Amino acid sequence: MDLQLSIPKGVGGDDGPGTNPEQLFATGYAACFHSALKAVARGKKADVTDSAVSVTIDLIRDDDGAIGLGARIEAQIPGLERATAQELLEAAHAMCPYSRATKGNIPAEVVLVDND
What we know:
alpha+beta; 3-stranded mixed sheet; elongated; GMP Synthetase, Chain A, domain 3
């Protein structure tokens, strides 16, 4: 992988045209979470063919000025009842290696969006 990296202005960078480490982390997290969602769905015989997952990683400063991360995982699972879709998301969050690795280390919010 050959990428141009840029650092966000909020942490002293130039906000240049390249990607940043947080975007790369978000991409890997989204792919991993989506794989976990598909695995959970297969086990429950639920159709998630048209599902999509995106992850946003935010930089968060604590009271001491140290920078940490926060994650927002958004998933669309059309064609399923909201309760079923939510159950799949919770199971995927429990299974996903990225979610497991960051559990208790960064705040993570899992959101079901546009499930109509």
